[in-house]
Amino acid sequence: MFRMLKAYRIVYILLLTLSGFSLFAQLHPANLKCEYLTNPEGIDIPDPRFYWQLKSGEEGQFQSAYQILVATSKEKLDQNKGDAFDSKKVKSNQNTHVVYKGKILEPASNYFWKVKVWDKNSKASEWSETATFSTGLFADDDWASAQWIGWKTQEEWEPAWWKRKAIEEQCHELHLPAYFGARMSLWERYLFHYENPYDPSPLMRKEFKAGKEIKSAKAFVAGIGYHELYINGKKVGDHVLDPGWTNYPQTVLYVSHDVSDYFRKGENAIGVMLGRGNYGLLANDHWSFWEKGGYIGQPKLKCRFRITYTDDTEEDIISDLSWKVTGGPVVYDDPHMGEIYDATKEVRGWNEPGIDTDSWKKVNIAPSPGGKLRAQLNEPIRVVQKTKPAQVETRGWKNEVWGDAGTNMAGWISIKVNAPKGTRISVYYGEMENVMNLDQPGGLQQSAYIAKGVPGEVATCRFSYKGFRYFLIQGHENQLTKDDIDVCRVNSDVTQVGKFECSDTTINAIHQ
Q: What is the pTM of this model?
């Protein structure tokens, strides 16, 4: 009798399957996002919003209800325990801008969430895959007494800045090249204040000892105008030109990273390279940001690193007067006019523990730029594509290298350098085949490099970008080929959600 009932049950299930009936919904949530981002770091919104897409193989399906669980650990979420938020079953077809309505979110913390939905037949789906978000710093107190720090005191930096600007105002050629037809090379700009040059890009560092095994670590970094973060000699993340440009007296963006894999038990070193960005423009531009009453300031840093040990104790490493600073190899930088990287001035091991810092100086407290610190919650700028030039030619007795990137773009080129120590290499960028033609947008966009004469050198950009298709390399006497040059397309790394293609190749190229 038992065997007969079991056989009937199997036949019944098969019939249900064949008839298209399912115990689960014909709808499934996928592609979960929080504040439009996939598994974001550093959400500083107290009531973030959730989004998900709906997938179904059946026409006419729709969501009739949903349930969200948010937990403080993956283990709790796997047990279907939403200890931070359990929406229960909500009768709604809403799957965008669903607002978090749970417990108050803790700063610098990880959260795990998932969702299930009910279809038009009121059948529930299985739970979605787990998604995550971490919180940033909601209020000034969350910065754990971190301070804005800079290289010079304001009393030392400010008079020297305005003295240089007063001299530059007498020279028309120092204005933004894109609109004023400047004809100066980067070398001429760099040497213009020969006896009182602008400071190079600052290198800031902090060493500390972790006495216990590290469970997790978070970084919150506001380094303006631009910054690159290093921990124990490794660059953190793949962002470039961080953080985004804002009106600094109103808003300053900080960048959040999970840096659990960068720190270790024992000695650690944090290094930050700062660039001027749009906060310290050297260009006397037509927007007048550099003028008094604008938002000019020296590069500065405010940061907090939250270390959690395996015994659940915590430690904060913050920006304060214990940090040290020295000048770096970026000796001149401006987003519009370009940058000079002097590889002979690199500081070996500057972002690693254990180096001799007797020649370094202590940082100084810097005035706040004034704006409210907010998390950078947009897709970061990245090098989104690297390609070889469409064409490269060596021209003239100086072995100048002319190149065609193949299409107009924002970004720069990277060069494998094979040159003696001290060789000055210049790169000009333009939208016309004659790169040196001043009658074009962005006339004489430039970058420059001084070789240190060792194998494996690469000349690239850090704190400037170009709008270009063509380029001209001067000063590299050894022959360069396509294999020695990478064309780096740089833009906000937004997700592609559609495409356009037609029979006209020109229109396709414009769309790309």
A: 0.91
